[in-house]
Structures are given as C-alpha cells and as structure tokens.
Amino acid sequence: MRHLVITLFLLLAHVGTALASYQTTQSFTLVILHDIALAWIASPTTTVNGYNVYRGAQGAEALYAELGDTVGYVDTGVTPGQTYCYYVTAVVLENNVIQAESAPSNEVCTAL
Q1: Can you tell me the distance from the alpha carbon of 34 to that of 31, in angstroms, rounded to the nearest whole number?
Q2: What is the helix, strand, coil percentage profile of the chain, to 5?
Q3: What CATH number does the domain located at 2-111 have?
Q4: pLDDT single digits (tens) 56-97
Q5: 107 touches 54 (CB < 8 A)
Q6: Where is 2: in which H helix or E strand?
Q7: How far apart are CA 98 and CA 112, in angstroms?
Q8: Residue spans per domain, the chain
Q9: Bridge partners of residue 89, in order along the sequence
C-alpha cells in the first residue's frame, strides 16, 4: 500500500463558534442535538477519491466510516453523556480497495 502525505485539519467547535473556526482552520466539527457533524476541506491531491472517519476513545480510534468523495459526515450513532474522539484520513481507492491512505488529521474530542 502506498502512503499519502496530506494534512487534514479537523477542529471541534460548537454551533456558536463554527463559522469563526472554519475561517481560521479550514475545517470544523459541530455538535447538533445528539448528532456530531464533522467537516473538512477536500484534499488538494487529485488522486484522493475518499475519506475514512475513525472514532473511539482518545488515542484509540478505530475505522468507523468509509466515505466517498465528500467533505463531511454526521455521526448519528452517539449517546448523550459519552465522549467521542475522531480523526479523518484521505484515501485513494481503486475498485473499492484502498491503494493509499494519508496520515491522520488532528484528533478532536467532544462530550455530549
């Protein structure tokens, strides 16, 4: 498997600070009721055609969602009172097989 060198930035923000955070970091996370919305700027690498979302305890995330060419994800499988941590990677897919995956974005965590 080839490795990509891509930096993705993910930032946790609540609804009131999302726009300011988006302008300065180029990505953001929103907590909306009992859902968590993640967003990021698309990779500038033209071969990237998907993203993987990892979720779990801080420092111990596992693959949670494999996405196509999109720049956001809403996690509806969350429970109030729990803490969730995420990071995202960019991937190159050929015939639905990962050929390359970037290093992880920064990790973001939030408690509902």
Answers
A1: 7
A2: 10, 50, 40
A3: 2.60.40.10
A4: 988 889 999 999 888 888 888 888 888 999 999 888 888 878
A5: no
A6: strand 2-4
A7: 32
A8: 2-111
A9: 52
Query: If you search the block for the tokens 């071969």, which residue do you land on?
Result: 47
Which element (helix H / strand E) includes 21? helix 18-25
DSSP the chain: -EEE-------B--GGGHHHHHHHHS-EEEEETTEEEEE-PPPS-TT--EEEEEEEETTEEEEEEEE-S-SEEEE----TT-EEEEEEEEEEEETTEEEEEEPP---EEEE-
Q: What is the pLDDT of residues 13-58, one digit of tens each?
A: 333 333 333 333 345 555 445 778 888 888 888 888 889 999 998 8
